[in-house]
Amino acid sequence: MTSLSPQPAQPASARPLYHRVLLKVSGEVLMGEQPFGIDLATLDAVAADIAEVTTKGVEVCLVIGGGNIFRGLSMAGKGMERASADYMGMLATVMNALALQSALEKIGVNTRVQSAIPMDAVCEPYIRRRALRHLEKGRVVIFAAGVGAPFFTTDTGAALRAAEMGCEALFKGTSVDGVYSADPKTHPDAERYDRLSYLDVLARDLRVMDASSISLMRDNAIPIVVFSIRERGAFLNVLTGAGVHTVIGPDSLP
Ligand code: UDP
After folding, report:
1. CA distances from 15 to 6, 79, 243 (A)
2. Among 18, 50, 52, 215, which is 20 to 30 Å from 243 by CA?
3. What is the pLDDT of residues 224-253, one digit of tens each?
């Protein structure tokens, strides 16, 4: 583990390190500066960054959270039955998926939304082989409703779909530029890591993703790349190995 000084941006010709990736964007990112819901300018900016990556020939899977609209755990904490609250959270992720689909299609990116909870009038049901076909045809596939079951999160959904789709890396776009020893918003002296092992993250309870998703990525040796999606152009930059980010991988990685 080493702390990292900002890396220089790569030249425009730099090539992406991966051919197929999954990008997980938490719902909170879509709020922008708003306290709730979807900020259209932020949505368009995230869509533009995804579009930029597709022009480089990278196949992109997307998983969007729902925390900007509804979070099951917090409603359960106020007395609602947990499973019902979680289903509402999953529906929130479908709303975000449709919003991102619309933003992407507006700028010419072909997309399909597949939901883990079948919703025929709204989007396709999740069918693994069909999703693979979409990717091969250059479409961005947005996976909605997490894993389709309560007591899980969209992080777990992202890890599961990344493994099922044969993604070479899981990119986690957050509002901070990597994994820190403590929340940098409340601890300005927190250390940022350049590289961590899956076991470091689990043992030190670094809370970048939930433990089940970290374990799933560890079992399948899929690296997790944590970066700030709030910075324009960062997705492509980090895909080429440049920009500020944290890579979580096996202990043996250089
Ligand atoms: N959720 C769930 N099962 C899943 C995915 C999501 O029950 O497989 C629910 C859960 O209530 C969660 C909410 O959907 O709080 C929104 O997802 P998440 O909290 O992962 O969104 P994010 O924090 O990434 O915005």
Report:
1. 19, 50, 14
2. 215
3. 999 999 999 999 999 999 999 999 999 765
